[in-house]
Design goal:
This protein is mostly helical. Helices cover about 75% and strands about 0% of the residues. It contains ten helices and no strands. Helix 4 (about 50-70) packs antiparallel against helix 5 (about 80-95) and helix 5 crosses helix 10. It is elongated and about 60 Å long.
Length: about 190
């Protein structure tokens, strides 16, 4: 795949929401019509609609990885770091609702594409696993399977964020974080802790 120009990438990302629930039925002509990018140009940069899907999913995950990396301040205590990472994911969903819905509705396809599986890991799972390990080491969190816990947190945050977008029409990352993180924290604190 060739390097996609940013204006074209933005057009594709903006059109992605229209295909979130029906990617299997989408044709290159549909993508061209929705994005305003000529069919011939799409074929110049991509060999198939699956490659376009891969590009869009990788783009949204790279943006999430950047957002998480920006807020994960290693000098802060684990609870604040976990809150910041959850808020970053929610804010990212709110800022990119179409791409978030496309990603979520096509996670099965993403698991077949090794680059996307690695991008999901890099974007959220790896930083959360690191936080869980640091928290357990300092006695702030109980020992848990870090892969399972990171996946559970990613899934919970994603589903709650998407629910807000679908049912409420918007996503207030601060308000949702304020409700969600205490629920996570209560379930993650060590036995016997207040």
């Amino acid at each position: 795949m060739r390097q996609v120009p940013e204006p074209m990438a933005e057009k594709l990302a903006a059109a992605a929401g229209g295909f979130a629930s029906s990617w299997d039925d989408v044709r290159i002509d549909d993508i061209a019509a929705a994005s305003g990018v000529p069919r011939a140009t799409l074929y110049y940069y991509f060999s198939s609609k699956e490659e376009i899907l891969g590009f869009l999913l990788e783009r949204v995950l790279n943006d999430l990885a950047s957002a998480v990396a920006t807020v994960d301040d290693e000098t802060e205590p684990v609870p604040q770091r976990l809150r910041a990472v959850v808020r970053a994911q929610l804010a990212h969903l709110g800022d990119n609702p179409a791409l978030a819905q496309l990603l979520t509705s096509n996670l099965g396809k993403a698991s077949k594409l090794p680059d996307l599986a690695a991008a999901i890991d890099r974007a959220f799972h790896r930083p959360v696993r690191r936080l869980l390990a640091v928290g357990a080491e300092k006695g702030l969190l109980r020992q848990v399977d870090p892969d399972l816990a990171a996946t559970a947190l990613y899934g919970a945050v994603t589903v709650v964020g998407l629910r807000q977008l679908v049912f409420e029409g918007n996503l207030d990352a601060d308000a949702v974080t304020a409700q969600l993180v205490p629920m996570f924290w209560s379930g993650l604190k060590p036995d016997g802790a207040l």
